[in-house]
Amino acid sequence: MAVHGARSRSGGRPTLEEVAARAGVGRGTVSRVINGSPRVSDATRAAVQAAVAELGYVPNTAARALAANRTDAIALVVPEPETRFFAEPYFSDMLRGVGAALSETEMQLLLIFADSDRERRRLAEYLAAHRVDGVLLVSVHADDPLPDLLFQLEIPAVISGRRSADETLPSVDSDNFGGGRFAVEHLIARGRRTIAHLAGRLDVFGAQRRVDGYRAALRDAGHEIDERLIVPGDFTEEGGRRGMTELLAVCPTLDAVFAGSDVMAAGARQVLREAGRRIPEDVALVGYDDSAIARHMDPPLTSVRQPIVDMGRAMLELLMDEIADRRPAISRGLERRQLVLPTELVARRSS
Fold first, then answer.
1. 205 and 132, same structural domain?
2. Which of 14, 241, 243, 303 could hold 8 in an S-S bridge, CB 3.0 to 4.6 Å?
């Protein structure tokens, strides 16, 4: 037996306005629900969904996109080499979170790498043609021109990790300062005295904040801060090897290392073992991200967990919010647009 939805008052296909009237909400609220925006309450969403079902309303995706000057596509832009994207768990976890949230919408996802000047120019031309409704920016460095370009083009965008304390774009970040502090406080509590830091790239605000957390924990515990024991890397395994080699040359008696990523910690571990240092007996080691690498290392790596999957989901939800609300950013305030998610230390045998 066929089941038919309620007919429109006009006798034709139900309209968005009729769904709104049936649900007792405004047309814009119906649009938000249909487009997957998180900026509606559960009760309102349920009322709209019930009205859609009762009327048999079917969104005309193509017509809606055309009428609203929409493409129903968003871009995940990564200004890093493809090799790094596929080698580091951070990116796959971020993509997993974005994908989980995206599955609840009708949007399509484009993955775009923009590591070189040539790729950035091509991306700028692509975005200027407004071929996507919004952009997610992941792993952005302080001097990257892409965020400002998106702002100028008035393309909704959300950035993963602020570029500075004064970030102007909507952003989703983790508590990098707290994470750095947790790592060093843990090492101090384990009786370690000479604690080095293999930092990430210091043109990344998150890496700067981890260094700030490292310094704060040492200072609060009454330890002197030796700037020679802070060596910047690039979040890669090779960077971890180079940095660890430099640290051992500067201070052969160090007894703990806080690495700015699990991948760098893996590189550091290789150098420590080649130098005859036992982990954790001689040198305690702490990483960052709490990725699969941390769990599978020998010994298992103590690491600071940042909720990367949750960050990806939050980025997509915030971007959908931005797309649904196209008012100028300055008129909306900054409070709801700067999200910072908590970090926590996961202790394992490496420390």
1. no
2. 14
pTM of the model: 0.76
The answer to whether the CB of 134 falls within 8 A of the CB of 123 is: no
Would you put residue 74 in left (φ > 0), alpha (ψ -120 to 50) or beta? Answer: beta
- How far apart are alpha carbons 293 and 265 in whole angstroms? 9
> One-letter amino acid identity for 46?
A
Instruction: Compute, in degrees rounded to 10, the torsion defined by CA atoms 234, 236, 192, 349.
Output: 160
Are 282 and 255 in contact by the 8 Å Cβ rule? The answer is: yes
Mark whether 126 and 28 lie in a shared domain: no
Which value, to the nearest 10 degrees, does the dihedral of the CA atoms of residues 89, 90, 94, 100 take? Answer: 30
φ, ψ of residue 282 in degrees (nearest 5):
-95, -40
Cβ(294)–Cβ(348) below 8 Å: yes
Tens of pLDDT, residues 5-58: 444 444 567 787 888 899 999 877 887 787 777 778 888 888 988 888 888 777
> What is the domain extent for residue 297?
176-305
- Report the chain's mean pLDDT, rounded to a whole number: 86
Q: Would you state the pLDDT for residue 11?
A: 52
Q: Is the pLDDT of residue 121 over 50?
A: yes
- For residue 74, the SS3 value is strand
Residue 240 lies in a domain: yes
Spacing of C-alpha 47 from chain mean position: 32
| Pairing verdict, β 338-341 and 108-113 | unpaired
Sign of CA dihedral 248, 249, 254, 256: negative
Confidence check: pLDDT of 330 > 70? no
Q: Within a 13 Å sphere around the CA of 149, how many CA atoms are in the beta-carbon half? A: 19
- Which pair of structure tokens corresponds to residue 114? 């923009």
In a domain, 337, yes or no: yes
